[in-house]
Amino acid sequence: MSIGNPSNELITIAITATFTAEPLERPLIFWMQELGIRARVEFAPYNQVLQQLLDPSSLLTANRNGINVVLVRLEDWQGINAEAKTTLTYYQEIERNARDLVAALTTATDQSAASFLVFLCPASPSCAADVERASLYHQVKTQLSSQLAKINGIYFVATEELEATYPVAEYDDPQADRLAHIPYRPVFYTALGTLIARKIYALKNIPYKAIVLDCDQTLWNGICGEDGPLGIRIGPARKFLQEFMVRQHDRGRLLCLCSKNNEEDVTAVFEHHRKMVLKRRHIASSRINWSAKSENLRSLARQLNLGLDSFIFVDDDPVECAEVKSNCPEVLTLELPREPDAIPKFLEHVWAFDHLKITDEDRKRTALYQQNAQREQFRNDSLTFKDFLAGLGLKIEISSLSVEQLARASDLTRRTNQLNLTSIRRSEAELRAICQPGGMECLAVHARDRFGDYGLAGLIVFEAGAEAVTVDTFLLSCRAMGRGVEHRMVAHLGEVAKKRGLEVVELVFVPSGKNEPARQFLVALGMEFKESCSSGFPLRIPAEIAANLEFIAPIIERSNASPSDESAVRTASPFSTRDAQAKSSLLSSIALELHEAGQIHKIILTQPVKPLTRTDFIPPQTPLEEQVAAVWSEVLGFQQIDRADDFFALGGHSLLAMQVLSRMSEMFQIELSPTLLFSGEFTVAALARTVSKEQICQAELQDITALLRKVEELSDDEVKGLLADRDGPKDKRNRSD
């Protein structure tokens, strides 16, 4: 089961950085396995960010079906002798590199169909403490954020987001930075890897469209029917929850209420309690009654014309949550923590609430649904459906998709399920790539009527071949379904085919389990044009017939039911139900148990990626060897480390070895030279002996007595050598460095 990559295709996570990024591999593999995403992690050559973005044959450019991750630490651009440079010169170098990065990313997005995640990583504490440098970094960060926001397919993540989401108090590793330009501690790499995984999940996951909220003990403390509108309490946790939900509303999610209450009691709280942050204007629809909440969720799905798998349900009551999970398993059900203080962190770490980019359509979504409610009321008041359509004054415009519309078009491919012939999901970068000159063509469909503007409501992606116009993507938002817009889209394709001398418009239906309305639409166009196919079917309509297609409204009296009611609340197949339940369980457990970097890092370390089975295992013999072996186990990912195991024979490489030396230096407060890697013996036992020697050699004279206890672990020859080093001249003692 894959909750973040519905097609379950193998994706490549290609990483380029201004510093050594390889320690990210283990946390990323952990998260991809947790999320069920089939992925491989590959690293570009060291510190070649601009080259990777500009080289047509680079790892990033060749990454056609994955995610490109760009990691930048601004101080890595400072060049040599940074301390001797004036502030102006230093800033000019940083600013020039930032401009070059924006230009290179612009070029890269034109060459690649992959999405780009660009992370601005934290500076070292010494640079962050320098007021002038910190100010320069802030200015450059602001410029990057503004400029990259204008490029489709790029998602910028500032340092502040990482620090706020997965804070790590002691994140820097000056020793490893000096040895191998590994500037961060392992736990920070876990934090960074977790945020990268979270962004990948948001890119690959179909977003939820509506959040349904309980009232008593959820939006507020207390029972409004008993305590009265002024008796309920809104403490810090509930205030945060309401503010959080208002932000979700502003970013495009519909908010609904579902509460077992008297409606007038809930209304009184919204109208009279001065601490209510959430207002009635934020609410798209409500079900406040004494019915089962699963029944009310189905009712909301019918009204909003959404599938149940588009909903997140939030409640404090475990019984109510269990009832919804049992009867509406497609819904993502979230039970609030019992401790109020835990609510903010829980909400912040439910990955389903994340947004990558906010479009104008997102900001207007509640208003669009409220307009649709007005349409439905007018529809119910009309004698016939034909009268309803005549009174709408519907106007449709079909034009080439512009660059500015790529974000919304991508969002449509991810959100639209019902009238979507092929259910192909595409990122901004993929849409940009396939619609390049000489490739496929993309058409945007706009609609408006007397009640308001539907916005960009439909999308067509097609290719004109030698004989036919072949449609790759044909979709229409549920807000505009069933009113003739889809017929006008087919007619437009027929006109395109005729103008180009082509004979056929080919529409292909691929069943998804959610697009029954799309199948019904094609069937209604004419089964005489259908051709057999093992999966779904193609419909080849003569261009002349397609161009003259008109929507004829059925002359029947309207009922209060919507034609798509049943499809909106269909019962999921057993497979999708299992997937939905697993998804709900995983997202809840992440929010409750995997929300702190240190906590996640410990879990990763308890799941070695390379367990060994051996019969001749010789365990470490001394406490020091045990400490060395524990570090090796963490770095290499093995459950058991033999005292005679060679680090490089176990798959270690120089970068990992540098991490080991850095950890040893920090643990024992000594300096270990990188020349140890080339000494011919890099085993647990040998490194433990070296640590003992260096502790004695680098100790102050008054510490010798205490440290001589370690002599018991050394051979007679080693003891004599140490004493000779200790008593000899300083320059002799330093030759081993």
Structural class from helices and strands? Answer: alpha/beta
Q: Span from first to last CA?
A: 53 Å
Total beta-strand segments? 17
Query: What share of residues are in beta strands?
Result: 5-15%
Q: Helicity, in percent?
A: 40-55%
Describe the sheet with the most strands. 7 strands, mixed
Number of helices: 31
Q: State Rg.
A: 31 Å
Shape: globular
How confident is the prediction overall: mean pLDDT?
82
Low-pLDDT residue intervals, each spanning 5 or more residues: 555-575, 730-737
> How many domains is the backbone divided into?
4
The CATH superfamily name of the largest domain is SGNH hydrolase
Protein model, in words:
The model is unreliable at 555-575 and 730-737 (pLDDT under 50). This protein is α/β, with parallel strands linked by helices and 737 residues long. Helix 20 links the parallel strand 15 and strand 16. The longest helix is centred in the first third of the chain and has 25 residues, at 87-111. The protein has 4 domains: 11-204, 3-Layer(aba) Sandwich (Rossmann fold); 210-361 and 574-593, Rossmann fold, CATH 3.40.50; 385-557, Aminopeptidase (3-Layer(aba) Sandwich), CATH 3.40.630.30; 623-736, ACP-like (Non-ribosomal Peptide Synthetase Peptidyl Carrier Protein, Chain A), CATH 1.10.1200.10. It is built from 31 helices and 17 strands. The strands form 3 sheets. Strands 11, 12, 13, 14, 15, 16 and 17 form a 7-stranded mixed beta sheet that branches. Helix 26 runs antiparallel to helix 27 and helix 26 (623-636) crosses helix 28. 44% of the residues lie in helices and 14% in strands.
